[in-house]
Recover the amino acids of this structure.
């Protein structure tokens, strides 16, 4: 089954450049950028023009391909040396999502095994396209598996944005919901607006409207109220990095929803492709958490809300300990406690 | 001890009109309104130009005084009949805060016992001034009592706004913090921005800056993260209505913070004058919760964020069951479990 309603393509490889749907302009405007320089791609990732763990991985891979195409040398050693700078620049954009580093590791490996410059450039483009296809397929598979957890009539709470925009494929948490909807199940979504950057209000509501799924927007502070009222049948969120024990880093506010779900006996699911899993980290304590500019918290979209000189904190992610997670939905199966074992089994 | 740093007066009776600091314009502008008509006062309450449970009570009382002054009749019976319409209008502004109804009950009683129109008008003005003074004194007393719970070095998390602006006196939750600060204790505040109307970002940060207390603004979705990191020593919030069993209605998001505090072993205090307590309600299930316009959720400070035609929910309050509350701080003492008994004791 393929998504029927998706009329937008978040990332597209055009042979020598990348067409990118600028997510910072949604839902007001549907603006596509054409990016031909890897440094522009790094900026686009940093500024969240493209965002979502799987989409960042794909954008990073294409960034490497752009960087490779721009290197003018016939010497493979010089080519590799200069490509390392490209890799370093893309790696320094955002620290939390594992998918970016998995993608760049694959691109680095492709560069290392290339025989000459021309063939290595071609191999890098192929690898990026393959990473893109892989993430898209993985999210489709996990969406299909996850849809089994959804019953017709469910109201599903989600946080942040995890649809085609965030994944370039079906979606993770939102993919599960889209799949269940296409199976004919009647589902309804409560979408957390997801401060500070409002990916829920701006992107999740936009994607659900396009798919024809009823959605009610709430502030992040309302999720607990609706969970306590019995209005939510399950929570599904995505992930930016999952440690070996199942601890999950995801958009700031996810931990809060997980605690509230457990307190109210509501299942809490994490949906992510296996490229989000990082078994080199024993637990969530080791996941690096990106701290972003306080300006995102003291205002929104150029409108200042806090007084001048007001300090603000802005951790972009938090870590949900695995004890709050009912199941982790991956493209290779649904994992439950004990996570250490289950994660070992799908990798 | 009197607040040293308060350079602003949220509500002031000027003999025939009320001077009101327009809280919707803060922190950008410090604009004072002069209100001479009770209907304008009703609109000001409804539109949150004046807000905070104790402040709404005071504004309502002065609204009655304005309404009384405008009635041109020498007949006490006609005066009382027409005053009932004033009372009804003011009662219909906002349903959740108990203080408004306590204040209007007192004003109604003063009207009922008046002998002639002139003396009844004077008695109503006296009663409103007395309600104002009573709320101010109560918040000062509860702030003093509550400050005993605060140790030097504490980082205190708070939600919404509960300072002089919200109370016309010392404050409730913020009053406790201000008092501890004036006692020389080093305190630091983490302020939830409090979506949708951002009373935390706009008002709490402004009041704390004026008082010289270090404050860090966070989004509501970050409170859990900081509680789980051990960065918070206690949580203090205000209340809009407290039922006989201690269940507490307060700004939407309060329940969430309470659950997260309990999960992380952090004390969760509610600070409120006894005028917030409503023993006619056995539990929080009976507290009426105001539903406000979805426009407050689909946008952010005048900037539309959600797609057009996007549905949104907007309950303005939630109920925190008493089992999550470590103590309720009132002007007549600090109440702990069993709340039913403790509340009976202070009333």
């Amino acid at each position: 089954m393929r998504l029927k309603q998706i009329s937008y393509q978040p990332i597209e490889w055009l042979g020598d450049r990348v067409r990118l749907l600028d997510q910072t302009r949604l839902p007001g405007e549907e603006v596509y950028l054409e990016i031909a320089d890897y440094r522009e791609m790094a900026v686009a990732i940093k500024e969240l023009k493209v965002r979502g763990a799987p989409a960042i991985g794909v954008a990073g891979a294409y960034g490497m391909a752009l960087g490779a195409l721009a290197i003018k040398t016939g010497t493979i050693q010089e080519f590799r040396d200069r490509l390392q700078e490209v890799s370093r620049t893309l790696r320094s954009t955002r620290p939390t999502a594992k998918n970016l580093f998995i993608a760049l590791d694959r691109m680095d490996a492709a560069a290392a095994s290339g025989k000459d410059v021309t063939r290595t450039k071609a191999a890098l483009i192929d690898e990026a396209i393959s990473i893109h296809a892989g993430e898209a397929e993985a999210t489709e598979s996990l969406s299909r598996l996850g849809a089994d957890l959804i019953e017709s009539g469910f109201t599903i709470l989600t946080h942040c944005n995890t649809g085609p925009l965030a994944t370039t494929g079906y979606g993770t948490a939102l993919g599960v919901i889209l799949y269940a909807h296409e199976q004919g199940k009647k589902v309804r979504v409560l979408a957390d607006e997801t401060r500070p950057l409002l990916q829920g209000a701006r992107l999740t509501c936009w994607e659900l409207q396009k798919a024809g799924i009823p959605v009610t927007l709430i502030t992040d502070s309302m999720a607990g109220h609706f969970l306590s009222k019995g209005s939510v049948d399950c929570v599904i969120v995505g992930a930016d990095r999952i440690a070996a024990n199942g601890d999950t880093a995801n958009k700031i506010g996810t931990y809060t929803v997980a605690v509230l779900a457990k307190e109210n006996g509501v299942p809490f699911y994490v949906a992510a492709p296996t490229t989000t899993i990082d078994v080199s980290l024993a637990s969530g304590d080791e996941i690096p958490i990106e701290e972003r500019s306080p300006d995102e918290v003291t205002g929104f979209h150029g409108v200042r809300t806090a007084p001048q000189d007001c300090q603000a904190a802005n951790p972009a992610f938090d870590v949900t300990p695995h004890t709050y997670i009912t199941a982790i939905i991956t493209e290779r199966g649904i994992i439950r406690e004990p996570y250490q074992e289950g994660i070992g089994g799908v990798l």
Chain A touches chain B through 54 residues (CB under 8 Å). The longest helix of chain A spans residues 117-147. The domain at 146-346 of chain A is CATH 3.40.50.10470 (Rossmann fold).
